[in-house]
Amino acid sequence: TNKSENNVYIFFFIYLQIQNAAEEPRALCIIQDITSAKTVNERLTLNLPASTTLSKLYEDVAHKAGYVNGTFGLAWGNTQDMVSNSSAPLDHSSEMSLSESGFEPGGKRNFLQLTDKDGEQPQIASVTDSSGLDDSSQERFIGPLLRDGTPGCSGDYSSPSYSYSSILSKSETGYVGLVNQAMTCYLNSLLQTLFMTPEFRNALYNWEFEEQEEDPVTSIPYQLQRLFVLLQTSKKRAIETTDVTRSFGWDSSEAWQQHDVQELCRVMFDALEQKWKQTEQADLINQLYQGKLKDYVRCLECGYESWRIDTYLDIPLVIRPFGASQAYGSVEEALQAFIQPETLDGPNQYFCERCKKKCDARKGLRFLHFPYLLTLQLKRFDFDYTTMHRIKLNDRMTFPEELDMSPFIDVEDEKSPQTESCTDSGAENEGSCHSDQMSNDFSTDDCVDEGICLDSTSSTERVLKPKSLLTFELFSVMVHSGSAAGGHYYACIKSFSDGQWYSFNDQHVSKITQDDIRKTYGGSSGSRGYFSGAFASSTNAYMLIYRLKDPSRNAKFLAVEDFPDHIKRLVQKEKESEEQEKRQREIERNTCKIKLFCMHPVKMMMESKLEVHKDKTLREATEMAYKMMELEGVVPLDCCRLVKYDEFHEYLERSYEGEEDTPMGLLLGGVKSSYMFDLLLETRRPDQVFQPYKPGEVMVKVHVVNLKSETIASPVSVRAYLNQTITEFKQLIAQATGLSAETMRVVLERCYNDLRLLYVPNKTLKAEGFFRSNKVFVESSELTDHQVPFTDSLLWKLLDRHGNTIRLLVLLPEQSPGTLANRTLFQKQQQGSSTSDSQKSSDASDFEHIESPTQEADSNSSLCVAADNRELENRIRATSAGSGGASSDPENHFACEERSDSEVNNDRSTSSVDSDILSSSHSSDTLCNADSGPIQLANGLDSHSITSSRRSKAHEGKKETWDTAEEDSGTDSEYDDNGKSKAEAQYLYFRAEPCSQDDASWNSQKCLVVHVDKRITLAAFKLNLEPYVGVTSTQFKVFRVYANNQEFESVRLNETLSSFSDDNKITIRLGRALKKGEYRVKVYQLLVNEPEPCKFLVDTVFAKAMTVRQSKEELLPQLKEQCKLDLSIDRVRLRKKTWKNPGTVFLDYHVYEEDISISSNWEVFLEVLDEPEKMKSMSQLAVLTRRWSPSTMKLGPFQEVILESSSVEELKEKLSEISGIPLENLEFAKGRGTFPCDISVLEIHQDLDWNPKVSTLNVWPLYICDDGAVVFYRDSTEEPLELSEDERNELMKKESSRLLKTGHRVSYSPRKEKALKIYLDGGPAKDPGQD
Question: pLDDT tens, 394-416?
């Protein structure tokens, strides 16, 4: 009773505790791991009782993050500014509760940051003690087998459910794993098995490599020797196999090919035999792995027997006989079936040489000799003839730990006097286990032991070994997990040293038990029915290797002290190499690698990577960066310093005053794989001093605006605080610029076209949307411009124009038609012309206007030749003078400024967070202002240094989507219906100047730098370019140059240049520009019976409302002049072109844009006819037909058939008419793919859908609804030509070559697997026929 009462009290107490815990307020903790770039986006969430202590918080975070407690810190996270090092870490040993430590309970989120401790990254927790391991073993590994998604796995099978012991380190198992290169698990399994075979390993060690005779890189035995030495002596957890695969002649692509482990075993043994010729190891493979068997056929009437001896390296055992519903239950059962003879009777009778007639006979195999190392392959991969796919048989098949092979040896007790052996080619071919069943490519004994009487066999060969000497001991099980499509291999191997079983699963080696081996039998626990394999485990044994139990032959592994001298030298060499690698890795682990930027006085912005040991001081790191940036002789070392820099936001985070002797590991927050900030090597002039940068400051680029001259000066950099008011900020700017704070207007550019006037005095910078890096425009004057609304003010207009001006590089034609004199005349005519329809008003002082040229000017300019760059400069000056004096134009000052392409991106976010990266200006000046005070401050970043690298990156990643051929649906006219220029209403900024040497990326060609408002239309832009090109805008074309140097013509005259950005390139080409309703068309000739049926002819222009006949009338003279084709208009047709496919035939009366859809950069086929056009109506159908002759294995030429309807009967009648094939014997099929629908003559007879059961052509499976379809036809009574194997192979080669040249696929069969090969000469030889 007392016990019951005590239990009640205990339960009640626990219940109260649970109730209290449930009622207690909880603190929601959100932890960001900022120790590396890989984890910075991860969040850990803990909802803990408010009474939880800080030490318990550290324990919970360590457990959830997988770190060792005490190797990391937790600090309050500032979600607004995220300023690092802004708060001290929480005490990990404190017993203060969360509520006492400042955590807010009740559902409020408490943000924490998981940080490094003492500059060292957190240690990852391991599930086992990893002391004594090499550094490479320090990895986060939980659970014995991580199969899904790991390299070498197909991912289509589930993880094995083995109850393996926990993964052990090398210090406990004593074994080293092998790294999986990608899908080389099959190779790793075989290599570990060979390494764990004492006889093979010892023999390999006894072989000595002669370096003077062979390259060690391509020597397979030497690389295997090196690998085995590392597996035996290395301190690593796992080692690479790349040197071994390189000796095979494999490249990196082979690592992604999974092969069969038994296939690899045969190929590798063959390669070793070739490499070991004429050495002591020449017969090693045969001595260890080769057995013998007898393939015989015995007559059941006279007892006559024909036989031969074959050799084998492995025995393939069938899992489930063909057509059977039940699999074999054990290896012994499968071995018995392997030697079970079959009776040849009925139609399969055997022709007996002695009886001279066909007789019943018995055919089978007998084992004569078993190898020392017996390899059994369980044939789990089969072919399902129902689904026509490869399958894997997962049926259960047991195998013993000790296998008695004495029941399967040949016991020849039938010694009838009639038993003889004779030469019989039939038996030789049929009974060759070497070629048919054993798949053994390794036998070098080509002789056939036939014609030898059995009685004459020597008595020594007839003596059988005692049963005790035919007992084999299992020591290796190679397991496959997965399906026939792919999977994973690993090996279970028993050590002959201690009898313990181990799992060698790539880099993981663990102890396993006999129960784990039994789990690889496969199958399920149920009965062995037909469908048992479908629901069985996909992890099962695939290859078994047994060793003969013979104390006289069973060897032990060579100990290290017993190694041959050459192996001892190799061990020492590999040990030194490993030590050197470890030292290098130690250096790498302690090396901080961070991006370094520098504004070089000569080379402008430079970028590199600074690699500095964590114990190096800031002073030493600065000296390293100084040399790396090649500043010696340019800037003194004491005029340089390293500062913390955010290149993405162009933000100088902080400087390190007084910390010159601090180790870099502490300054950078430890050694990390990547950092969330960069370093800038800042420079100053000797008469300047460095400005201190404090954490928490924001950087502001201040541009002073002069309304009188309408100029915007280069930026001056100031640093402010987010909690400063606008009034305080104006005072700061006044000190830096010398302007009056009382009359100062400050405009913040948050992002493109987002200009905000800061007019509330007490509002903070943070409230106004300031971030790390900002850009403002300031103006201080007493003009009346202050009185008008900001959006109507001159300041806003000036800033608006500044924000929309872009810089374009324009390449003029190499042979411009005008000289300087004619250009000047051209411009004077423009100015003096009062009758020109395109004359523009000249009273707008803010903008330049260039008139449209007259015809007279055009004719004069066409007589002239190209001018050089100096002439171009003169022309620009003349143009400027003629348009109102650009030399005095205040907008000239925009030439010194340049905007990044991010400024002109229409899709830019309006978030103030991104304002610092959205706009910037070019200037060669520093950020120091000499007039700002008695002491000059040096700030190592000017506007160019910040923007230059970003601009190039933005250009690389920018996707252009304007004026492509697919998007252009037409063109616009440059003139409206009244003949006035559409550009008249566009008074937008335009100014041109010659390219400088730095800008001229097109060397020795004439290039303009054009500053233009991107809101200008293409029509107005072309008008402004007229004086520089020398012809009217209708006589030249504008091509936009994209990043890959592809050019596309810009033809939409009413569209603006808004999609252009700074430094975009434009090419001007002479030629008639398209008028309204015109389309540029590419004309190709259709040659249906030529190897290349599509041939480009000319570029031409088609117009809206033009008929097809009119377009042919304009096209034919062009073809005659340019292509030397003299064609009759009644013997040519135009037809639709869709890639290479001919389509709809265009009739003469068809009208473009009414009957025929047409678009910019359109393509059309021109077809030359042998007779006048037969297509007269759209109801007709033009089909291209081709005859297939099975008796000759040839295809006839294409012939066009014109059908009046979509009737199948009419098609067959027309085909019968042109071929002479009787209607009842005619069969047809639609071609596949693109024109000309090529197909191999070896496949056409079976692969096409012949004689479809339809009555019309426009239904499934034909769907012939348009002109140009390809139809094959044949005579059903014509028998296919019978080809010999050689003829078929020769024809296959010819067809493959023909179809590859035409770009059509050779076969419709699925991709074939790549054969596994080991190249003895170091690599595959290139087939000349593949070129």
Answer: 999 999 999 999 988 875 533 33
DSSP conformation class of 921: -
- Longest pairwise C-alpha distance within the chain: 134
Helix (H/G/I), strand (E/B), else coil: 1036: strand
**CA 703, 704, 705 angle in degrees (round to 5)?**
115
Cβ atoms of 1081 and 1038 closer than 8 Å: no
Q: Contact 735/779 with Cβ under 8 angstroms?
A: no
Cβ neighbours, 10 Å, residue 1124: 7
Determine the 3-state secondary structure of 1171 from DSSP.
Answer: coil
Rounded Cα distance between 695 and 390, Å, is: 66
Burial class (CB in 10 A: 0-12, 13-18, 19+), 941: buried
**Strands across the sheet with 305-312, in order?**
305-312, 291-299, 361-369, 342-344
Q: 3-state SS string over 616-653?
A: CEHHHHHHHHHHHCCCCCCCCHHHEEEEEEECCCCEEE
Residue 912, SS3 per DSSP: helix
Point out the catalytic residue in the list 29, 153, 185, 639. Answer: 185
Dihedral of the alpha carbons of 1088, 1094, 1096, 1100, in degrees to the nearest 10: 70
185 is catalytic: yes
Rounded CA gap, 711 and 703, in Å?
10
Structure tokens at 784: 């009346």
CA angle 760, 762, 767 (to 5 degrees): 75
Helix 185-195 to helix 261-275 angle (10° resolution) is: 60
Cis (ω within 30 of 0) for the bond into 216? no
Under 8 Å CB-to-CB from 1210, ≥6 apart: which residues? Answer: 1203, 1204
| Residue whose pair of structure tokens reads 């397979």 in the numeric block | 220
Is-contact 274 253, C-beta < 8 A? no
- Specify the 3-state DSSP secondary structure of 397: coil
**pLDDT for the residue 939:** 46
Q: Which of 259, 434, 480, 488 is catalytic?
A: 488
**Structure token digits, residue 1228:** 């047809």
> CA-CA distance, 1268 to 1137, in Å (whole number)?
10
Confidence (pTM): 0.49
Ramachandran quadrant class, 1063 (left: phi over 0; alpha: psi -120 to 50; beta: rest): left
3-state secondary structure of 88: coil
Instruction: Give the confidence band of 586 by pLDDT, cuts at 50, 70, 90.
Output: confident
3-state SS class at 1141: strand
Q: Which tens digit of pLDDT belongs to each residue from 209-227?
A: 887 777 888 888 889 999 9
Per-residue DSSP letter, 983: G
Q: What is the DSSP letter of 1163?
A: E
Which run of H or of E encompasses 357? strand 357-359
DSSP symbols for 474-498: EEEEEEEEEETTEEEEEEEEE-TTT
Say how far apart CA 368 and CA 409 lie, in whole Å: 6
Quickly list DSSP for 1076-1112.
TTEEEEEEEEE-TTSSS-EEEEEEEEEETT-BHHHHH
**Beta strand ranges found along 18-88 (DSSP E):** 26-33, 43-49, 72-76
Residue-by-residue DSSP string for 943-970: HHHHHHHHHHHHHHHPPP-SS-TTT---
d(C-alpha 35, C-alpha 72), whole Å: 9
Q: Is 92 labeled as catalytic in the residue annotation?
A: no
What pLDDT, on the 0 to 100 scale, is given for residue 993? 87
Q: How far is it, in rounded angstroms, from Cα 538 to Cα 395?
A: 9
**pLDDT-above-70 percentage for the chain:** 72
8-state DSSP, 447: -
Distance CA 952, CA 937 (A): 29
368 and 294 in contact (C-beta within 8 Å)?
Answer: yes
Q: Is 337 helix (H, G, I), strand (E, B) or coil?
A: helix
Which range among 310-319, 1241-1250, 1266-1275 shows the weakest confidence by mean pLDDT? 1241-1250
> What pLDDT does residue 520 have?
93
